[in-house]
Every structure is written in C-alpha cells, then in structure tokens.
C-alpha cells in the first residue's frame, strides 16, 4: 500500500456516512455493477450460470467489504478482500481453463462503483473543498482496494492452477478437454485413462448448485443417481467448478427416477443433453447439456431438471431474450399474464391436436370447463387461436420455461 495521508476529521465523518449508505446498496446499483462486470468478462464467463453467479457474489462481497471497512475506519487504507466469494471465483475460473485476464472485468466494474460513490458523495456536502477532499481520498481508496483484491485473486488462481495440474481430477479434465475440442487422441487411449467406454450411447449432464454454500456432496450423489437411472454403469464425472460437475452416463436416464433423486437433493439442478453414440455423441450431448443449462439461466427459470429435447425450440427462440419477450407479448397479449389454468388449457389443447375431449381428460377436468377456459383465452389473445396455433404454442413454451420475474416484464 503506498504512503497514505489520512483525511481530515470532517471528511472521515463524511466517508463513514457514505459507507453506511453503500452498505445498503440500491438494486439498480447492483444491477448496473453486475451488467458492467459481466459485459467485460469473457463470453465463457458471462454465459455460464455458475461463473456469472460467482461474479455477482464477488461484486457484492467487494462492495460490502470496502463499505464496512470505511464504517469502522473511515479514510484508512482498505486491505484486499480475500473472503470466500473472491477465492471461490478464482478456483472456478481456473477450473474452466481461464487465466488472469478474466479479472480485467473488475476494472470495468470499478468505473460503475466510482460513479455511484460520486453520487453518494455529492449528496453528503455542498462545500466544494470538503467534496474535493472526500472524492480525492475515496477514489484513491477504491482504486487501491480493487488493485489489491485483483492481485489477491490472481495469486489464488496461480496456486489453484498448480493444485489442479496434480491428481486424477486434472487427468480426467485434460482428457475430456481433448475429446471436446476434437483433438487427435485415440478412443482407446482416452477410454483407458478415463475408465469410461466411449463407444456406447451417452447422455451428458451438467449438474450444478446455484448456492456454493450448499452441501456440494449432493452433486456427486446426483451423478450417481443419473447413472443408476440409466442402468447403473458408473458415471464419468469431471469437476468443472466447485459447484458444477460435468457428467456422462451410458444410455438414457429415466426422467422419473432422476426427479425422485432430486427430491432428496434440494441444492442440485440438472441439465441433460440428448443421447448420442460414440466420441461425437460424447461431445454433442455435452454441448446440448450446456445449451440447456444456459437457457435456464437466461430465462431465470426455476426448473431443476430439464433436457435438451424438451427445450431445444425455446433455446433457439430465446437466444435474444429481448426479442423473445417481444414475441411472447405480441403473440399472447393479455394471455401472457392469465392464470395458469387458462394457459395450461391452451397448451394442452394444442398438444392434443386441438382435441377438446383428450385435452380435458389429460387435465382431469370436464370438457365444458375446458371449453370455457379456451373461450376466455381467445378473448385475451390478440388474434384467435384458430389459424395461429403454431405461434401460440411456441410463445406458451417460452412462457412455461421463463422465471416469474421475466414473466412479469412481458
């Protein structure tokens, strides 16, 4: 830390007041900070739900750490934040094969923090000299704190990289990375080093927890449950990050068995790829599982189990979330915010090829009740369901997979 001249008592008091405000950050400040940091991240980080969530946690941890230090000792140098959140993101970045350049995004976030702090500072005093001293010391403090914290995370990444290059997890990751990249490694050599046959049909899965503080042993139990649901051949499981496992099993896991297992693993979420044979299937199913996981994150979906076969259309439609929102609003109109019994009636009616009797049976309701719900849906739709069933079905699929927050915005 360079030579630090403490501010005047008055400015120390102003910094304490401002830090107390920063300890209660407005949601819009956090949203802007997250957006700036993730926009500065490598695409691999921003698109990965676990890495993106880790970045958001680190943003909050850094903001609250700096503010808390300035409440306790306003205007004094703030040490690096070496708490759980920044160290967890260091481990996860290394396990994804990223280097220290991924930390440049925190410089982007720093500019947002400086702007927000300037707004806070300007609300504390109208005295030009006090404001000048307050901004001088606080902006230097923020800059030094970010430098120290980024250096601490980078140092942890260096240590983690060394640890990751030793042991069986590292070997499995190396071989899997070669297979996913299409590198010229023979199937026989890969199988021998992985202890997993590559000729059969595979189903890949991304198994993860949104909360890194959860019992992460549940991830390994979920991998075993997937294998049991597919026929009990031991799974191939690779540590992708502290809260993520990449898993492959032979065959197609029974969805009901997997759902039963998830009921006892409340921290776990699973995205499944499509089953496919051989080395190409090993790779393609994994990419499908990643697409499924990222779609769930993009739509803020609360679903804990999803397969690529279920979401392929929605994944394509929602690659541009803003465009997808406009599509849903244009096609569904007021039906987008209708009660679930109305939207479910339309969805099942279309799925049953517009056969009211079959749809009523599937919904365990009387046919006349179904017809009344369909009539109400027709009044809510901008255009009649007849003649527009394909568009309505697609929009309802997007609506079904979106989280409540996204739905409320439409």
From TrEMBL:
Domain spans labelled CdaR GGDEF-like: 187-295
InterPro entries recorded: CdaR-like_regulators, CdaR_GGDEF, PucR_C-HTH_dom, PucR_C-HTH_sf
Family annotation (Pfam families): GGDEF_2 (PF17853), HTH_30 (PF13556)
Domain of life: Bacteria
Residue stretches making up the PucR C-terminal helix-turn-helix domain: 345-397
Family: Belongs to the CdaR family.
This protein's name: PucR family transcriptional regulator
